[in-house]
Specification:
Layout lengths: L2 H18 L14 E5 L4 E4 L15 H15 L7 E5 L5 H15 L5 E4 L8 H8 L6 E5 L10 H10 L9 E7 L7 H10 L3 H9 L7 E5 L4 H15 L5 H15 L4 H15 L5
Parallel strand pairs: 1-4, 3-6, 3-7, 4-5, 5-6
Antiparallel strand pairs: 1-2
Helix pairs in contact: 2-3, 6-7, 8-9, 8-10
Length: about 280
Amino acid sequence: MDTSKVEQLLARIADALDRIAPPARISADMDGADAFVWHADGARLEAVAKVNRVDISLLKGVERQRDQLYDNTKRFADGLPANNVLLWGARGTGKSSLVKAVHAQICAERKRAVALVEIHREDIPSLPKLLGHVRQTDRRIVIFCDDLSFDGQDAAYKSLKAVLDGGIEGRPDNVVFYATSNRRHLMPRDMIENERSTAINPAEAVEEKVSLSDRFGLWLGFHNADQDTYFAMIEGYAQRYGFGVPVEELRRQANEWSVTRGARSGRVAWQFVVDLAGRLGKRID
């Protein structure tokens, strides 16, 4: 075979390989934004131009949790030791809203102080890859997972335990992990009981799973709001957006809304505000 035919054949092979090769990974510049989403499929970070969050002044009934989370995040932003944080408790009580609000407050006080990187629950097994990615930057990073929990034979919790413990490489000094969950131990009681009944050594099996939450140095509990706190949430939103509804009427409608929902929480309060704003023809951007 002459040289020209060999070169043509090699060129065709190279073209074919280019067509079937996966696209090059493109990640956002870590200094170009304050918030990112991690995409395990493609192992890349995507910058978030506008974060969906509530102003920290509008979060009522969580003052103690707010102060503790702010202090921990501020120390981390200042280069001081800080804990991984588990925010647990009833649904709709402001756990994820508080994480995003505190992050916004820290960044408002000092530009680019901390980057918030969200990882989805189903992408937890890719967490070591994410750490390898952010290890290359000097920027302080809060990795955030919303609604974290584990069920059945899900073994992803082992990946998380290794990351929180640091593994052989150690957790990067520029990273802390924040997670929200409805469960204090991240696993349902029936899953823990099943381990106890089927394991050769029940105590050890239960300890392995329950100990996951022990890797978080700071636990913040959230509970449903009482009526006064619920009304304070509603009135704060009403004042911020200029609804102009008398307080007694506002409370009457808010109370009726909470009864139909069967709960009083930050989420229920916000849903009422959205409904009221729509009826009043008001924007709440």
